[in-house]
Write a structure and sequence with these properties.
The structure is a single chain. The protein is about 65% helix and about 5% strand. It contains 12 helices and 4 strands; from the N terminus they run ααααααββαααααββα. A hairpin with a 4-residue loop joins strand 3 (about 350-355) and strand 4 (about 360). The protein is globular and about 65 Å long. Residues about 1-5, about 15-30, about 185-190 and about 345-370 have low confidence and may be disordered.
């Protein structure tokens, strides 16, 4: 049987000590690893900041897209879907990782033991597939502007299919994630101070099945989607660069600039996603093939840093798409304005075009810069 960690892991794998190391530790010949208060404080503060930014930012993004009917185009539907998966990771995966890492044992019960890696695997899959759908939609819009264009109904169908596929490929976590004291009872000693501790680990029938599934997830969740996305954006940038005809530029310059700006922004989301998940990917590979390179005493802390970097991807969506976008900031202010003025008569709104979306801004808010309009 084998245990494994991978992109979908929300839980640090048990450190691999040799029997000699464990014997020396338990017999008192070796100074045990001491938990650093500084490390724990850093993890709590860092995870709390990422959770707050990811949760609030993505909630604002989803609310704006849901509230504004004109914003429910294909790209924004996938953006909202990406935000939903990020919200799920912020609510479930990150808090559990902090608790498990700091406690160094599992205290949350069997249900959460199985559910946590399942949720993260599904969320990661939804995120990368949403980015792939966005890239394909942009590719069709720019490379073949007069051809077939997906409608919002097609986007909703793709979102449903994405979640179905993500849940399906995550099912092995429900079967092979177990709650056990195995990592703490590897030695037959008269006294084992860790015998009653539990760990939440993957326990596979064979190493071959484990490695097959691991390889599949690495390809399906990371390598293949990123190759497809990079190919799409590479063709998009080539097409935008080749528009050198001055007449065409004069006629479609504004549209080309809009396409270029939006494509750059979306490509940055992909680069940020790939960069955020790279450290955890490297850690997983190192753990599988050469675990002795990972210092035992800093094993959980290193995993947490890699996992924290991966979780930081939940913040890139609202930051890149939203808070660096002045139009989105206006939408959030208009949303807060409407909430604060819910007791007054409905405002009249005027539509303004965004890059690929339209938005509604309150005339009263634009005139007064805030404050509810007086009732007539």
């Amino acid at each position: 049987a084998g245990t494994q960690t991978r992109l979908a892991s929300v839980l640090p794998p048990p450190p691999k000590r040799s029997e000699g190391e464990q014997l020396s530790l338990l017999e008192g010949n070796e100074v045990p690893c001491s938990d650093s208060v500084g490390h724990g404080t850093f993890l709590i503060v860092a995870y709390s900041a990422v959770i707050a930014v990811g949760l609030i930012g993505n909630l604002c993004l989803v609310c704006v897209i849901v509230q504004q009917k004109e914003m429910r185009n294909v790209t924004n539907i996938f953006i909202a879907n990406l935000s939903c998966s990020d919200i799920l990771m912020s609510l479930v995966c990150m808090p559990i990782t902090v608790i498990y890492t700091l406690m160094d044992r599992w205290i949350l019960g069997e249900v959460l033991c199985k559910a946590s890696p399942f949720v993260q695997c599904a969320s990661v899959t939804v995120s990368i597939l949403s980015l792939a759908w966005i890239a394909l939609e942009r590719h069709q819009l720019i490379i073949n502007p007069t051809g077939w264009k997906p409608a919002a109904s097609h986007a909703y169908l793709a979102v449903a299919l994405t979640w179905a596929v993500a849940c399906f490929i995550s099912l092995p976590f429900l079967s092979f994630t177990v709650l056990t004291n195995e990592p703490f009872r590897n030695l037959s000693l008269p006294f084992n101070p860790f015998a009653d501790h539990l760990a939440c680990i993957e326990h596979w029938p064979s190493d071959e099945q484990r490695l097959t599934y691991t390889t599949f997830l690495l390809l399906f969740q990371y390598c293949l989607p990123l190759c497809l996305i990079m190919a799409c954006y590479f063709r998009i940038f080539l097409r935008l660069q080749r528009r050198k005809d001055m007449v065409e530029r004069a006629k479609e310059g504004s549209r080309a600039t809009s396409h270029r700006r939006v494509s750059v922004m979306l490509a940055c989301l992909v680069v940020a996603f790939a960069a955020c998940w790279l450290p955890l990917t490297v850690f997983n590979a190192l753990y599988d093939w050469d675990h002795e390179k990972i210092p035992v005493c800093y094993h959980n802390f290193i995993f947490s840093l890699c996992h924290l970097t991966a979780m930081a991807s939940t913040c890139t969506n609202p930051i890149a798409y939203g808070f660096l976008n002045s139009n989105f900031q206006k939408e959030v202010k208009a949303l807060l304005y409407r909430c604060s003025c819910s007791g007054h008569e409905k405002d009249k709104y005027e539509s303004f075009p965004l890059s690929t979306v339209s938005t509604e801004i309150s005339k009263a808010s634009l005139r007064s810069g805030g404050g509810c309009p007086e009732e007539l």
